[in-house]
Amino acid sequence: MSTAIVVGAGPNGLTAAAVLAVKGMKVTVIEGAEIIGGGTRTSELVTSGVWHDECSAVHPMAAASPAFRLLGLERHGLTWAYPDIDVSHPLDGGNGAALHRSIEETAANLGVDGKRWRSDFGPLSDRIDQVLSEFLQPLLHIPQHPIDLALFGMRALPPATWTAHRWKGEGTRALFAGISAHSMYPLGSPTTSAIGTMMIAIGHQYGWPIAVGGSRSITDALAGIVLEHGGKIETGRTVVSLKELPRADIVMLDLTPQAVARLAGNMLPRRVAKSYGRWKYGPAAFKLDLVVEEGIPWLNAESRSAGTVHLGGTLDEIVQTELDVSRGIMPEKPFVLVGQQYLADSSRSNGNQHPIWAYAHVPHGFSGDATSGILNQLERFAPGVRERIVGMATRSPRDFEIHNPNYVGGNIVSGANSPIQVLFRPSLGLNPYATGIPGVFICSAATPPGGGVHGMGGFNAAETAFRSLVR
After folding, report:
1. Alpha carbon of 118 to those of 61, 121, 153, 179: distances in Å?
2. H or E segment at 220?
3. Is 144 exposed, middle or buried (0-12, 13-18, 19+ CB in 10 A)?
4. Crossing angle, helix 146-156 and helix 114-126, to 10 degrees?
5. Are 45 and 52 in contact, with CB atoms under 8 Å apart?
6. Where in the chain are the domains?
7. Whether pLDDT at 258 is above 70
8. DSSP helix, strand, coil percent of the chain (3-state; round to 5)
9. pLDDT tens digits, one per residue of 86-97
10. At CA 446, angle to CA 445 and CA 451, rounded to 5?
C-alpha cells in the first residue's frame, strides 16, 4: 500500500488527506496544535454554553466547493443552516442593502439597480458550477468551459471600484464593496472584483450558510473520512524538518511557502526557494468575540436577520479604509465583519445570550488594540449595543499567528492578494503544488485557488500528487 504523510490539519491538509485515503493510500496527518482544524475550529471562547468560531464562520465557498461535494461531507455529519438574509450592509441612519439567496428578492430591494444586478449576476449564478470548475484550478490549465470562464473574467478583472460604479445606489455600491473587501487588498487594484463577483454569484446559488455546531463540524467531517479509510491523525507534534518524517511515497505540506522552505532547507531547488522566500503577506485581522444579551439592536432592519453584516459605511469609506490598512495605517473607523451565526444555528447560544463574531481589518502585524474601533463601529449602526454586552474576548494579529502559524502577522488568508501573487501563487511554474522535491507537495491556502474554506488547494494538490505515483 502506498503511503502519504500530511503536515498540517487545516481544511486544505485534511482535504488532501481525505482524498488520498479514499484512493486507498495509508495516510498519516501530523498537526502541531493539540486540536485539528486550523481556521475551522469552534470553542467556548467567552463563557460556557456560548460557542464562537475561532476564525472562519460563514461558508459560501464551502457549500459550493467541488471537493467537499465530491467527498460528501454531509454524509459525515456536516449540516448547513441558512439565515433569512445572507449579507447585510447597513449605512448611517438605518438605510443599506442586502444580499438574499434569491436574486429576484435581492434585485427587488435594490430599486433602480435591480435590473442591472439581475443581468450581472443571473447568468453567473446559473452557471456557477461550471465557473468554479475553472476558477478553482491553477491559472495554467486547459479550460473545459471557456465561455463560462470568459464570462467570469470580464467581471473579475477590473478593480472593485470600477465595478461598483456600474450601479447608482449608494447601498448597492457599498454592498459590493463590502463583499469584495474579503480579499483584504486595496479595492482600486485590478482583479479585486473577482472575490465580490464570485461570492455574490455563489450566494445566489448556494447561499451563505452556517455549519451547524460550528465551523469545527467541517473539520470533524473531513477527519471522519480520513479515519474511516484507515488514516491516522497525530496532534501536538511540530515538524521542524522534512528529514524527521518517516519514509513515505507522498508528503503534503499544509504550510506557508516560507515554512516549507524552512522545513526543506537545502533540499529545495534554488529557484523555488527564492520564490517561497519572496512570498508576501497582506493585512491582518483583529478579532472580537462578544456575548450579547438579546442580540444586536441594529437600526437597519435587514441586519437583524442577516448571518453576515459588513460595517464599513459607503463605498468611498471602504476604499479609503482598505487602502490605509494596506499602507500600515490603522483607520479610526475600520472595516468590520460581523457574524450572527446563532440566527441560523440556535445551538451556539445559551438562552438569551448570543455569540457575536467580529473582526476588523488592521495593518499586517498590528500591535495595538482595535477593540474600541470595532465597538464604535457596532455602536454606530446599532446604538445601545454596548449595554447588552455581557462578555468579550480579543484575538490580536499576534494571537492569530500563535494560534495558527500559517497566519503570519495575523494575515488570515495566508498571503497578499496582489494581482501578480494571485496569478502565480506560490511560485511561477507549470505545477504550483510541486516543490521540486520528488514526492513533496505544498497544499496550503498559498496555492491555487487561494484562501477560504473550500479545500481546493488540498484537493488539487492531492490529485496532482496521486497522478505522480501512477505514471
Report:
1. 21, 5, 18, 17
2. helix 216-228
3. exposed
4. 140
5. yes
6. 3-40+59-78+211-279+416-470
7. yes
8. 45, 15, 40
9. 999 999 999 999
10. 40
- Name the residue type at position 296: I
Nearest to 435 by CA among 470, 443, 451, 280: 443
Contact assessment for residue 310 and residue 178, using Cβ atoms and an 8 Å cutoff: yes
> In what helix (H) or strand (E) does residue 152 lie, and over which residues does it extend?
helix 146-156
Contacts of 30 (CB under 8 A, 6+ apart): 5, 6, 7, 8, 9, 234, 237, 239, 245
Distance between CA atoms of residues 272 and 118, nearest Å:
44
Looking at residue 434, what DSSP letter applies? Answer: B
All three cell numbers of 329, joined, read 495605517
Cβ pair 89, 40 in contact under 8 A: no
Architecture of domain 3-40+59-78+211-279+416-470: 3-Layer(bba) Sandwich (3.50)
CA 405 to chain centre: 16
pLDDT digits (tens, 9 = 90+) for 309-353: 999 999 999 999 999 999 999 999 999 999 999 999 999 999 999
CA dist 86 and 386 (Å) reads 24
Gap between the Cα atoms of 105 and 349, Å rounded: 29
What is the rounded distance in angstroms from the CA atom of residue 108 to the CA atom of residue 102? 10
C-alpha cell at 438: 520528488
**Top-confidence residue, 429 or 272:** 272
- Residue range 269-275: mean pLDDT, rounded: 94
Q: Which amino acid is it at 7?
A: V
Instruction: Determine whether 258 is exposed, middle or buried from the number of CB atoms within 10 Å of its CB (0-12, 13-18, 19+).
Output: middle
Secondary structure element (H or E) that encloses residue 202, with its range: helix 193-206
The yes-or-no verdict on residue 120 having pLDDT over 90 is yes
Predicted pLDDT at 189: 94
pLDDT in tens, 356-406: 999 999 999 999 999 999 999 999 999 999 999 999 999 999 999 999 999
- Residue written as grid cell 502559524: 405
Question: C-alpha cell of 157?
Answer: 478583472
Phi, psi of 361 (to 5 degrees): -75, 125
CA distance 133 to 65: 9
Q: How far is CA 43 from the centre of its chain?
A: 18
Burial-class residue 316 by CB neighbours within 10 Å (0-12, 13-18, 19+).
middle
CB neighbourhood size of 38 (10 A): 29
Q: What is the pLDDT of residue 124?
A: 93
Contact 184, 413 (CB under 8 A): yes
Average pLDDT over residues 192-203: 96
Please give the Cα distance from 245 to 238 (Å, whole number). Answer: 11
Question: Does the pLDDT value for residue 471 go beyond 70?
Answer: no
